Amino acid sequence: MKRVEFNEIGSTEVLNIVEREIPIPKENEIVIKVKTAGLNRAEELLFQGQYLFQPKSPSLLDLEAAGIIEKVGSKINNFEKRDEVCLIPNITPTEYGFLGEYAVAPLQAVIKKTKWISFKESAAIWMTCRTAYADIKL
């Protein structure tokens, strides 16, 4: 499968499309075939080395995605293969990233996609909502 990684700080030239094996989920993780993903300003700041923390190497991008479950970990019983899901950006990009053909996500970052909105809308809505909520709480 293909995914985007970076190994150094810089501009878009540091982003690489690499070939990797489809991930195997740990007991509390889910593997998703990504239908759509989106980047936001925080991820741009991350690969430029200007975010709240420095990325590990290699580092993945994107905490916004939606897709179809491919595999579930052994301790997961509320999702199954072929469920349509979206990923909530409630994790740090140092361990996970969803900008690829497949992505692995921890259970707490996965929710079932609402049928009446598209994969694209499902991927885009969570970071926007989270940012707006944080601004309201300030």
Multimerization state: single chain
Relative strand content: 25-35%
**Fourth CATH level, the homologous superfamily:** Medium-chain alcohol dehydrogenases, catalytic domain
Global morphology: globular
What structural class do the secondary elements suggest? alpha+beta
Estimated radius of gyration: 15 Å
* Total beta strand runs: 8
- Into how many domains do the coordinates divide? 1
Span from first to last CA?
A: 41 Å
How do the SSEs run, as a string of H and E? Answer: EEEHEEEEEH
Low-confidence stretches: none
Biggest pleated sheet: 5 strands, antiparallel
Might you state the CATH topology name?
A: Quinone Oxidoreductase, Chain A, domain 1
What's the rounded overall pLDDT mean? 89
Query: Share of helix among residues?
Result: 10-25%
| Architecture per CATH nomenclature, i.e. the level-2 architecture | Alpha-Beta Complex
CATH class label: Alpha Beta
SS field, number of helical segments: 2
Compact summary:
By secondary structure, the chain is of the alpha+beta class.
Plain-language structure description:
The chain is of the alpha+beta class. It has two helices and eight strands. The protein has helices at 41-47, 119-137; strands spanning 2-6, 15-19, 29-38, 59-60, 64-72, 84-87, 102-106, 110-112. It has a five-stranded antiparallel sheet with strand order 7-3-5-6-8. A three-stranded antiparallel sheet has the order 2-1-4, with no helix packed on it. Strand 1 and strand 2 (15-19) form a beta hairpin. The longest helix is centred in the C-terminal third of the chain and has 19 residues, at 119-137. The termini are far apart.
